[in-house]
Amino acid sequence: MPSSTSRHDHFPRADRARRDSRRRAAAALQAEWQAADAAPGGLLAAMAEVRNAPPEAAIERLRPWLADTGWLPARLAAAVELLAADPFARPPLRLVGGGEETGGLVLAEQGAIRLTLQFRPAGGGDAPPATALFVPGAAAIRVLAGGGARMALHHVAVGAAEAAGAFTAATAARCRSDAPRPLADGEILHLDTARSSFTLAGGSVDTLLLELAVQPPSPLPIRAHDLANGRLVHVSASRRDSSFRAMALTVLRHFGRRDAVSLFVTEAASEDFAVRWHAMRELVALDAAAARPHLAAMAAGDPHPEIRRAAAATAMLFSLPSGETGREGGGGPGPCTSPAPSTPEPARHDGTRAPCPV
Hints:
35% of the residues lie in helices and 20% in strands. The strands form 3 sheets. The chain has a 6-stranded antiparallel β-sheet. Strands 6, 7, 8 and 10 form a 4-stranded antiparallel β-sheet that branches. It folds into 2 domains: 16-87 and 102-236, Jelly Rolls, CATH 2.60.120.10; 240-348. It is α+β, with helices and mostly antiparallel strands and 358 residues long.
């Protein structure tokens, strides 16, 4: 048993007046920010104007909020004031990440456009990350405090056909990396995030970044590359709604919800190839008998060649005699696995997986 009590042990559950006061204060602050941002010339109003624009055009329109950050200290000060009044208050700033190395706050969001404050603590890792993540879209990052960290840029070629939906793991280009260099306070990085990424290492003090990202739905998946050799190691759906549904299927599989088979079958017909395979492999793990006819149909007619091969290889396991599948007891395929990326932007990580090697 821990010797010290948690701060949560002091949460005022029985003090309804205090809880109501805290909620009113947070709601009032949120309404104040919402009114300012939605007014003409405000941040949300500007985001709404370009929510359907190409990523680069949206970034250009919203550059003033990166170039002049005078609005940011006042917003953070208001959030801190809320916490000073009551340490259990919840300022209207959504958290992203929050792991040991990175975390952040969503400052504004409109459709595929998101402005976040990214924080990386001092000593976040002297060794460079093992993978780089490439997400369809564009981003501009203002370095508020470099913290002595060193940045390495990574690049990968993406052909027009791949960007239009013909991406395959077998033909994916390897990524290449630039030599690391120190982050400079005040610099603004502009990235085509489908083709460029960056990683950070080292740093004697905290690193603080203001990131404007525009990542609309795309037929091109999110890709993780091994920085040691440049090879692709993982793909996942770039559509946020598809990613959420894929994660929900994983939860249902863990709960053994065989009554939800129809949901898996529906997602196995998704337009996103990474989601289709994720749904099928989860269905195989949940209920192999129910998956069998759908797996056969996928092996015969899926539009993506790697999904057809993965489905065919998995279907072949059904025909092996008991005990020859590699699973205890034999008699059917176990869930196929593939490498998962180590991602610097946790709000973007999802549960979908690449086709298994066959």
